[in-house]
Each structure stands twice: as C-alpha cells, then as structure tokens.
Amino acid sequence: MRDLSRDTRLLSLNTATIREQWGLGEAIEGCVRHGIGGIAPWRDQLHVLGVTEAVKRISDEGLRVSSLCRGGLFTVDDHLNLDDNRRAVDEATALGAECLVLVVGGLMAGSRDLPEARRRVAEGIAKLLDHARVQGMRLAIEPLHPMYAADRGCVNTLREALDLCDVLGAGVGVAIDTYHVWWDADLERQIRRAGQAGRIFAYHVCDWLVPTEDLLTDRGMPGDGIIDLRRVRGAVEAAGYNGCCEIEIFSAKNWWRRDPDEVLRICVERFQSVV
Amino acid sequence: MRDLSRDTRLLSLNTATIREQWGLGEAIEGCVRHGIGGIAPWRDQLHVLGVTEAVKRISDEGLRVSSLCRGGLFTVDDHLNLDDNRRAVDEATALGAECLVLVVGGLMAGSRDLPEARRRVAEGIAKLLDHARVQGMRLAIEPLHPMYAADRGCVNTLREALDLCDVLGAGVGVAIDTYHVWWDADLERQIRRAGQAGRIFAYHVCDWLVPTEDLLTDRGMPGDGIIDLRRVRGAVEAAGYNGCCEIEIFSAKNWWRRDPDEVLRICVERFQSVV
C-alpha cells in the first residue's frame, strides 16, 4: 500500500464536500491553499463559473481533475438523457478529467420495473460510449448503495457494474466509493476482478456513520464511521489502482455547516492518517 | 401463482405492524376479527403476555404461527448471545412456530471488522442449530438490507444467507423479506436456488417508499411503494414456497399512529390486491 502519511498530492477534493459553503472558484483556491493535488467538480458549479474559466484556473493551478461529477440519469426521459450526457463528456474532456462519473438513475417515473430500468441504463451507456470514445473520455460507472436503487442509481454492486463493463467493452470502468460498497461480502473479489480488467477509474472515500440519520446527507468524514477504510484501499491498490483518493461527503448537519478551510484541513489530516 | 384475491388464511400478521397500538393478546383477537390466518409474534410482547398464555390463546383461535421474531444478534457479546437464542428456540417450539427468524447482528461494539462479524454469525448459527435440531425448530436467516449491515444484520443478500446455509446443513433456511432484498439484481436466481434447496421458510412483505425518510421506521404498506411485489411472490412460489405471506411494517409516522383495526383491514385489502 502507498504511504500517504505525508502526502497531499494524491488527495482529491470532491467539491460536494463543501458545496454549501463554496463555489468552484473558491474550491480551487482552497485546494491550492491546503496543498491538495486534485479536484472533482460537480457540473452545476462548473456551469456557474463557466467551463472556459474553470479550465483556465484549474490548469493554471496545476490541479489534477480526478473526475467530473456527473453524467448518467439515463432513466429520467425516453431519450436516455443523451443530449445532456454528451455535454457532460465534452465538459469532462475540456477539463482534462480522468473520467466522467456516471450515476445511472433509478426507476422510470411511475414504474416498478427495475430490470427495465437496468436495460435502459445499459443502452444509455452503450450509446454514450460512442461519443466518449471519440473524445477519449473514460466513463466510470459508480455503483450506488442499494438504498438508492429506486431513485438515484439502479446499479448497486461492483459486480453488477463490472458485468455491464464486460458487455460494453473498452472505455468504461468503475468509480469505487467506500460509502456505497463497504457492506458487500463479495467486495474484495470484485475489486480484484476490476483491477485485472483495468477498470478502476476512480476511488472515492467517505465513511458510514452509526447511526445514519438521513439516507442522502448524513455521510461521514473518513475515520468518523465504521468502514475499514484501509482494508478497502489496500484491496484497490493491490488491484493496481494508483490514482487519487477523492473525498466526497454529503453532510447537511455537520460538514456543510463548518468553516470550509477547517473541513479541508481535516480532510488532509484524515487522508494522511485513516484513508 | 396462488390466487389470493379472496383469501385471508394465507395472510399472517407480523405484530410489529401494530406494535405501538396493541399487545400480543389484542393482536391475536384482531387477527381473529379480520379472518387473518396467521400471526408472527415478537418476543418482547410474548414475554409480556406470557408464553403459556400465548400458546393457549393462539391455539384456541386456530392461528398459524408463521414465525417467531426473533433470535440472532450473535455479535452483541462474546458468547454469541447463545443463552437468549436457546430460549428463543424453546419459545418458538412452545408456540409451534414454523420457524425462528434470525436477525444476525452487525459489527461488534467498537469494531470495523465485518468479516469477523460474519464469522461469528456463522459460528453462532452453527451452535444454535445443535439445540434447534433437537427441538425440531427451523432457523430462518433473514438477510437484511445493506443499510443495516453495521448495526443490525451483517448478512445482506439472499446469496450470502444461502452460502451460509450450504455450510451449515439441515435445519436452517431463509426468511425472504421484500423490503430487504427487492433491489438485488441476483434476486430471482437466488430465490430459485433457495427453493431447490428447500430453504424458503418464510416470506415477508413490505414496500419501499420513495422518498424513505428514516432508515428503520419508514417502511411502506404493500402497494404504497415501488417494489414489484407480484414479481417477487411469483418467483418465491415458482420456487415451491406455499406458506403464509407475512406483512411486517415499521412505520413510526403513519401505520403505528392509526387505528389498528383500520391497519388490519388495509393489510387484508392489500394482501388480496397487490401482494
């Protein structure tokens, strides 16, 4: 395993972590101030700053863009959300992002047909890949925790995501987020499989709090929860991953209310001590 | 599939559904009043009424006991919670229950070691089986939704539960609860596997609400959520299950606040129309 105890360059800040306090411009400056090597912007904030301006600032500061969040949501309309998804690929390409993260979407409105939702997701990724391959942009399917299967993402295990990748071919892989996959008894085997196929495009770190009081916005800073983070990173790195560790926390009652410089300082500490 | 549209005998009331309104004695009377054929008591309420008295009343009314809830929690102490678990087996036997449901327990206090928790669970069930086999009481492992892996149950898919059963041998099977397993892409295959092994001991029905506002107590009446209940029951019955459909709903803000006779009336309606 890599020794991160003095490193900050392999840490990437997913801007969701301080999204209530800072826009993208401030997040870029914050990363620079704290020596954080990478950033993963969300598209809504990217649009506020403007893609051209964001590209310039990120490039000027020498930050890696570990991913762009996010494309996907293939089930929200009858056109697989493809127009917006193609724009997301273009934006990721402009930013020089290492991948575009896909949160694939849940059930269609008014539907209970989960297999059909999954078929549409497969079709959507296949169609988006045509565009992404031309641009040379990698697509990273992010399996979401099963509690989001209905309304956010119906690919819920690493195994399912890799089964999809097997069908889809080159240019598509996975974003592994500890928060979504930690519970899975099959996790380490699937991480090995992902590594052997060269499909680990991103690694996100977030902890599971006990108790968890909200399904979406009560996620934990690494070290505050019960996930054996070192075990997961060990498996991911043993499988060949050598990219950034991206910290992404949704936390309405805690981290989104704090001084964002304090949040970044603690992210760095935890990255060096528990990630 | 069985036609339940005029039936009430194959419906079983899990008493958690009206636990805030009624004790076990009232629940027994309620089942009789509504023609509900089965009941699944919880042990805390059983102890309040007294096992002998409960056995007498349930027997006098001719109710099936589709299961006793619950044994398990093998990770709460260093003795695999075995004394209490053996008492649970004895109580289930006294009631003539069709199985004892096992909610296996989560991480040990202060631990992040999920594989170790799972090893203890396997050891605990193996030891409890020695006692259960003598009594002729079947143990039903209930895979819990992955959002409970840390603090309630670390067996989180039907596949994991069946892998455990394969190791453990005769006398142990599964309780399949739609709320916990509906999201699983591997569900139908594992249901077939469970049926082929003769391991489907109980079938629980509960719906997943969108949005879900609490991880534990915001579960839905069948028909109010997004689970394709007919698809799951079809698979379970195609796999050979012909027992009760047990309705079990934890609902702090809705069903636990209603007139319990109204709750039972609606359970019967939904059992006949959407389960």
Overview of the structural elements:
The longest helix of chain A has 22 residues, at 114-135. Chain A is of the alpha/beta class and 275 residues long. Chain A has one domain (11-273): TIM Barrel, CATH 3.20.20.150. The first copy, chain A, is built from 10 helices and 9 strands. In chain A, α4 (82-95) crosses α5 (114-135) and α8 (187-196) runs parallel beside α9. In chain A, strands 3-2-1-9-8-7-6-5-4 form a 9-stranded parallel beta sheet. The interface between A and B is medium-sized, with 29 and 29 residues.
Question: What is this entry, summarized?
Answer:
Two copies of one chain form a homodimer. With 275 residues, chain A is of the alpha/beta class.
CATH architecture of chain A: Alpha-Beta Barrel
CATH class of chain A: Alpha Beta
Based on CA inertia axes, which overall geometry of chain A fits? globular
Largest interface, per-chain counts? A-B, 29 and 29 residues
DSSP summary: helix tally of chain A: 10
H-E order of chain A: EHEHHEEHEHEHEHHEHEH
What multimeric state do the chains show?
A: homodimer
CATH topology of chain A: TIM Barrel
Q: Give, in spatial order, the strands making up the sheet with the most strands of chain A.
A: 3-2-1-9-8-7-6-5-4
Give the beta-strand count of chain A: 9
Main β-sheet of chain A, in a few words?
9 strands, parallel
- Rg of chain A is 17 Å
Mean pLDDT score of chain A, rounded? 98
Give me the secondary-structure category of chain A. Answer: alpha/beta
DSSP strand (E) fraction of chain A?
5-15%
